[in-house]
Specification:
Layout lengths: L3 E6 L5 H7 L4 H8 L1 E4 L8 H5 L6 E7 L2 E3 H13 E7 L1 H5 L11 H11 L14 E4 L2 E4 L3 E6 L9 E3 L6 H13 L66 H4 L17 H9 L8 H9 L4 H5 L22
Parallel strand pairs: 1-2, 1-3, 3-5, 5-9
Antiparallel strand pairs: 4-8, 6-7
């Protein structure tokens, strides 16, 4: 019998599912080698079908997306019981991802912004989603939305990580081949090379040492296509991000956003990046350094764009909150 494989999508945009489709004709090799028994976004499988399966009967569960709701938690824990191996697939499962930026706010503030304050929203009654709604005798129940976005391994044990937003299909194919062959690295490994992006970036430094006088937003300049973007004053996270994407952003003349996460030597992307920036100020007096720092557009959201739930602080403390979950 072919090994059983399940795919599941939690709190994310759907790009990880697209990356599976981006295997193109190679997906036929995957289908030939494994039995896909759960993939709600692409095939008509029901949750109760997987619930009825014996624990440990699925070889691999490939789960993408951050954990935001009670339903996310339930399915993650259920698949952990059913699967021999669990792979956190993509930035959101690996690090918390862009949805993790919600951890800078309380859930009440997010609901107020989304459903009441956004200029394009017309909601004069101030209605927000309710956990339980009864209409014409019919009851609709929604999952609880947690106040804190979490990465997958905050909820269940994870065997391997495939990073990226979205992951390079080559990494997925290599991961599947490694699983099928049994030639796997140590449990807990990130299945992407453990080197930082600057090692493989196609752009070059014009100076021996980077010295920045001010930082700029992307729309303020047209960067030199051949020169290091950080050297040009753009917030590029290449120094703290592992390779594996194929340097796609830099090849499009855009800074690295950090979606592949840190190398194994880095505990916290944001603090490591702050340390790196502190070494490249052009000025040395306090007043000019303060000016350079103030030119950085929203440092926390850039440095932790994909990794806030995986950081040492995990979220912003909201004074009125007691239970942060």
């Amino acid at each position: 019998m072919k090994p059983k494989v399940g795919f599941y999508w939690m709190g994310t945009c759907g790009g990880c599912e697209e990356s599976v489709v981006d295997l193109a004709e190679r997906i036929l090799d995957v289908v030939a080698a494994v039995d896909i028994i759960f993939w709600p976004v692409a095939m008509d499988f029901k949750l109760e079908d997987v619930e009825a399966m014996a624990d440990g009967s699925i070889a691999v569960a490939i789960i993408n997306g951050s954990v935001k709701t009670s339903h996310d938690e339930y399915v993650a824990k259920m698949l952990r019981k059913k699967a021999g191996l669990v792979i956190a697939y993509g930035s959101c499962a690996h690090l918390g991802g862009i949805p993790g930026l919600a951890n800078f706010h309380s859930i009440d503030a997010i609901f107020d912004r989304v459903y009441k304050e956004v200029p394009t929203v017309y909601n004069d009654k101030g209605i927000v989603p309710q956990l339980r709604t009864e209409i014409d005798g019919m009851i609709l129940e929604l999952p609880t939305i947690n106040n804190t976005v979490q990465k997958l391994d905050d909820i269940v044990s994870v065997d391997y990580y495939i990073p990226g937003c979205a992951p390079n299909p080559d990494l997925l194919m290599a991961g599947i081949q490694a699983i099928l062959s049994g030639n796997l690295p140590p449990v807990g490994s990130v299945l992407s090379p453990n080197r930082n992006m600057c090692d493989s970036c196609p752009k070059e430094r014009k100076e021996e040492k980077i010295m920045v006088k001010e930082f700029k937003r992307y729309y303020e300049i047209i960067p030199d296509e051949d020169q290091c973007l950080l050297e040009q004053g753009l917030m590029c996270l290449g120094p703290v991000t592992r390779i594996g994407c194929g340097e796609l952003c830099m090849k499009a003349n855009m800074p690295c956003r950090g979606c592949y996460g840190p190398t194994d030597q880095i505990e916290d992307m944001g603090t490591k990046y702050a340390s790196a920036l502190a070494t490249i100020w052009y000025e040395t007096n306090e007043e000019d350094i303060d000016r350079i720092v103030r030119s950085i557009p929203n440092f926390a959201s850039i440095a932790y764009m994909f990794s806030l739930p995986a950081s040492i602080m995990k979220r912003k403390r909201i004074k009125s909150e007691v239970d942060f979950k």
